């Protein structure tokens, strides 16, 4: 198994892409730490994985708070024998027209989507450097880093920041044998997008812009996460891999 004997931390691991990644890491032999603010969902998922014979634990963590992150990552390393993989996945999306976007919405989005990657990436990197055995960090970006709309200024800015931060982290950590890459999902059916995708007009429009003519499910994205975190990607770092069904390549001629 690809991650046998390794410890993987997944933020936002109680649902959506994070949960799919946590399940895949466990199935591939990793000891899994699920970090989330959703205590009920996180506890239940960790218990389910443990019941299937995997080593999995839930840790309540506010990934926007430096003290919470530092304390939680130290506990994970002590409980699970170190830290080998981080999937920095936690995030939110709040849509509003740019003139109506509040400072609170802006700050909350950047904190959840970008500052959390900085805090968790730094905490993981410090542990990995001390261990001296390398490691892998995979961040969750989005096609929203490159494609924008008038209603998602904060989200797009945060994900563009994730791409830039991913590259900087990768360059800084390469001498320590730590690789850092991002996965950039296209439209994925999760709790974050569910409300929008209930509208048939929205769903039809997204599908019309997606050459593979289907929406992603969380496991589609989790597969890319595990590839980037694993040995098969050992010579890949500082990259964003877009799992978007071909959407970024499509341009209708007029």
Helix content: 40-55%
CATH topology title: Rossmann fold
Strand numbers in spatial order across the main sheet = 3-2-1-4-5-6-7
Instruction: Categorize the overall geometry.
Output: globular
**Any idea what the radius of gyration is?**
18 Å
Summed up, the domain count is 1
What composes the largest sheet?
7 strands, parallel
Amount of beta strand: 5-15%
Short description:
One of its GO terms (molecular function) is oxidoreductase activity. The chain is α/β, with parallel strands linked by helices and 254 residues long.
Characterization of this structure:
The relative contact order is 0.14. Strands 3-2-1-4-5-6-7 form a seven-stranded parallel β-sheet, with helices on both faces. Helix content is 45%, strand content 15%. The protein has 254 residues and is α/β, with parallel strands linked by helices. The chain has one domain: Rossmann fold. It contains eight helices and seven strands. α2 (39-51) links the parallel β2 and β3 (56-60). Belongs to the short-chain dehydrogenases/reductases (SDR) family. Residues 6-205 form the Ketoreductase domain. This is NAD(P)-dependent dehydrogenase (Short-subunit alcohol dehydrogenase family).
Characteristic key phrases:
254 residues, Rossmann fold, seven-stranded parallel β-sheet
Protein topology:
Elements: E1 7-11, H1 16-27, E2 31-36, H2 39-51, E3 56-60, H3 66-80, E4 85-88, H4 103-131, E5 135-140, H5 153-173, E6 178-185, H6 194-197, H7 200-208, H8 218-229, E7 240-243
Parallel strand pairs: 1-2, 1-4, 2-3, 4-5, 5-6, 6-7
Helix pairs in contact: 1-8, 3-4, 4-5
């Amino acid at each position: 198994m690809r991650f046998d004997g390794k410890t993987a931390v997944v933020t936002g691991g109680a649902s959506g892409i994070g949960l799919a990644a946590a399940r895949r890491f466990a199935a591939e032999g990793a000891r899994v730490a699920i970090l989330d603010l959703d205590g009920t969902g996180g506890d239940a998922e960790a218990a389910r994985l443990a019941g299937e014979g995997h080593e999995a634990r839930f840790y309540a963590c506010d990934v926007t708070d430096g003290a919470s992150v530092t304390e939680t990552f130290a506990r994970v390393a002590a409980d699970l024998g170190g830290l080998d993989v981080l999937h920095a996945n936690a995030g939110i999306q709040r849509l509003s027209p740019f003139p109506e976007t509040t400072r609170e919405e802006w700050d909350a989005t950047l904190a959840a989507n970008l500052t959390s990657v900085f805090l968790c990436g730094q905490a993981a990197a410090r542990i990995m450097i001390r261990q001296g055995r390398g490691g892998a960090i995979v961040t969750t970006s989005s096609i929203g880093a490159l494609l924008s709309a008038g209603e998602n200024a904060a989200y797009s800015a945060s994900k563009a920041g994730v791409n830039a931060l991913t590259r900087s982290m990768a360059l800084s950590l390469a001498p320590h044998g730590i690789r850092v890459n991002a996965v950039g999902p296209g439209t994925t059916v999760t709790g974050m997008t569910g409300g929008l995708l209930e509208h048939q007009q929205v769903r039809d429009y997204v599908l019309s812009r997606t050459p593979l003519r289907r929406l992603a499910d969380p496991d589609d994205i989790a597969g890319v996460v595990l590839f980037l975190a694993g040995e098969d990607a050992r010579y890949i770092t500082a990259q964003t891999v877009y799992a978007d069904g071909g959407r970024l390549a499509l341009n209708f001629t007029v």
